[in-house]
Write a structure and sequence with these properties.
The complex is a heterodimer of chains A (247) and B (155). With 247 residues, chain A is an all-alpha fold. Chain A contains 9 helices and no strands. Chain B has 155 residues and is of the alpha+beta class. Chain B has 3 helices and 6 strands. A 5-stranded mixed barrel of chain B has the order 1-3-4-6-5. In chain B, strand 2 and strand 3 form a beta hairpin. The longest helix of chain B has 27 residues. Classes of the chains: A mainly alpha (247), B alpha+beta (155).
Chain lengths: 247, 155
């Protein structure tokens, strides 16, 4: 059953496969983000309380979602690294880290820009903001640990362990606004009952979220291909690739 | 699965479960310290510290807002719809501040000024509902506005 999976995730095949689908992913990403921005910034109505400034959610919310989603991807691939020693899984973890850290930083920065006019402060140490900041430190810690260890194999395993330890922070971020009194408002879209956001605002928000997901996939595959070539530079397929210029 | 992989799987699962339990216990122990603010009910019940700064969160009671003649000082009542606390504040209020709005105020409840909370900072909370003004108006008219208690007292 896993035969095709093994075949696809073999470095040589995955390199070629990623190269074929990535332009498509990039195109879809561009379409989604452009239409999401257009609908969100020009077509969506202003908010009854916050007027025009609520429009930052079209960047802030998808970035915050992605900061957690990327971490979950890293946790899954770290788990596969540790149990099955998949080569590709370690590469996916490594390639995701900087992207996830960027999404986290974007969520924190846009949140801060939104907080000043609405709440009246750039930053407060409430449970949601603090746990999101810890997520940024987890990403940075992973990057530091992974690059500090000389031996690639040891580095991959040690840092995979760090990713798994940090995964406990993800449910804390998500439920922080329910478990504790926070300045940050509770979830709008991902709560159990109907999302409490008008449809004209929800559609661009979801388009942006999907666009951000495709952006992650696009940058991830770019980076994975680079890392594959670097790791496998001594293998035959990379040598051939370098000679002929095309695989 | 090879026995070796099975062992690794069990080890890592055990590690995840024990970290989960440890963190749950820690968070439970620090439950009180993780509260960003006290509700008026907690303050009235004497759970908040006297003469020591803390935050209070709740709704600005409708009709309770009075501005002093110097234009900077305001007095209002913070309520969670079961208990009220009087608040006095001098300074600039955030744009969202209005009656019926959720706020979080930092300040002290002194022995001398029992029942009056002297705020040094007032932050506005906004809710998780987003809608165009016309929809909000229509909801207000029909009395179906999901706005009010919801922001502060979800739990």
């Amino acid at each position: 059953m896993f035969a095709w999976f093994h075949k696809l995730t073999a470095p040589k095949n995955f390199y070629r496969f990623a190269g074929i689908i990535n332009p498509w992913i990039g195109t879809i990403c561009l379409i989604l983000i452009l239409s999401g921005l257009y609908l969100g910034l020009f077509k969506a109505p202003p908010d009854y309380q916050q007027g025009e400034s609520y429009r930052i959610i079209f960047v802030h919310v998808p970035a915050a979602w992605m900061s957690m989603f990327v971490y979950m991807v890293m946790a899954c691939s770290a788990f596969m690294t540790l149990v099955w020693r998949y080569k590709l899984a370690g590469i996916i973890t490594e390639a995701s880290a900087a992207i996830g850290a960027s999404f986290t930083f974007l969520a924190l920065a846009t949140g801060s820009l939104w907080g000043k006019p609405m709440w009246g402060t750039w930053w407060v140490w409430d449970a949601r903001l603090t746990s999101e900041l810890i997520l940024l430190f987890l990403y940075l810690g992973y990057i530091a640990l992974n690059s500090a260890i000389e031996n690639k194999k040891t580095a991959t395993r040690a840092s995979a362990l760090l990713v798994l330890v940090g995964v406990i922070n993800i449910p804390i971020i998500h439920y922080s606004v329910e478990w504790w009194y926070t300045l940050h408002q509770p979830a709008t879209v991902t709560k159990m009952d109907k999302p409490s956001i008008h449809l004209d605002m929800l559609i661009p928000l979801l388009l942006m979220a999907l666009g951000f997901t495709f952006f992650y996939a696009f940058t991830l595959l770019l980076k994975v291909r680079t890392l594959l070539i670097m790791r496998e530079q001594k293998s035959k397929w990379v040598q051939e690739l370098l000679e002929h210029g095309k695989s | 699965m090879t026995p070796q992989r099975k062992r690794r799987l069990a080890l890592i699962s055990l590690m995840l479960v024990s970290i989960g339990i440890a963190v749950a216990l820690i968070l439970n122990a620090f439950q009180k310290n993780l509260l960003f603010f006290f509700s008026p009910t907690q303050v009235v019940a004497g759970e908040a510290p006297l003469n020591h700064p803390f935050r209070i969160g709740g709704m600005v009671k409708e009709g309770s807002l009075t501005r002093s003649s110097d234009g900077l000082s305001v007095d209002f009542v913070v309520t969670d719809y079961s208990h009220d606390v009087n608040v006095t504040y001098t300074g600039i209020l955030p744009d969202l501040f209005r009656e019926g709005q959720g706020i979080v105020a930092m300040g002290t409840l002194g022995e001398a000024s029992r029942n009056v909370f002297t705020a040094t900072e007032v932050l506005a909370k906004h809710d998780e509902n987003y809608m165009p003004p016309e929809v909000a108006e229509a909801l207000e008219k029909s009395g179906a506005m999901p706005h009010g208690l919801k922001t502060v007292e979800e739990k």
